[in-house]
Design a protein that fits this description.
By secondary structure, the chain is an alpha/beta fold. It has nine helices and seven strands; from the N terminus they run ααβαβααβαβαβαββα. The chain has a seven-stranded mixed β-sheet, with helices on both faces. Strand 4 (about 150-155), helix 7 and strand 5 (about 175-185) form a beta-alpha-beta unit. Helix 1 (about 1-10) runs antiparallel to helix 2 and helix 7 runs parallel beside helix 8 (about 190-200). The protein is globular, with a radius of gyration of 21 Å. It starts with a helix and ends with a helix.
Length: about 250
Amino acid sequence: MFMETASKVRKKNLTYLNNDRLENMNSCINSIKRKRVPGEFLEFGIALGGSAICIASELDDDRRFIGFDVFGMIPPPGEKDGPGPNERYETIKTGRSVGIGGDRYYGYVNDLHQLVIKNFEDFGFMIDGHKIELVPGLYEAILPGLPEMTIAFAHIDCDWYEPVMLCLEYITPRLSPGGMIILDDYNDWPGCKKASDEFCARHPEIDVRRTSPHCVLCKRFEPATIIGRLSRAFFGGLTAFARDKLL
């Protein structure tokens, strides 16, 4: 379902992701579903909704998709992003950016939120606010007020250092063991790579699974928890053995 949807999404110029990245995203989601990792599917940075539609196509009965975006002109990069992103932002800000396949750049669409809703509906997915929800606003404003949730998968596609770091800090405590995070811009923008590398250096529970075609992070199962379970099973077995001998 995912790659079939992805092919249609790409033909409609709704995603910047190439086929390699979409296939890898599909592989991550399949792994999560196969291992029955609990939690919701999230995306940060929706643009026209292409990759979000692909993710939503893989929802189970007990999962939701929640997408976050400003649904308009992206915020500017910061000092930690370096000169390249700031030059790129100047191109966007002055109206000189070109969209996917030569289309109009999504940041110039007057009501991007409504366009994304329509794009979802064109693929048969209703934004009902429950199963599929889109949350508009700046991350620093909306994330602190969200209801508590468990996360199985998150796609971070928001370019710059600060929003990437905000997303990682929000997702990781809520990410199920075995859950995955994809950082789409890891090899494209230095701020994203810097935020990811710094964050992973502080969080040993996060493994870097791969860095090509984009970065995939996975929350490991706590060794202490696994050892604890094995110990309890082992010593529980010994206790039962000793009890049987005594009886």
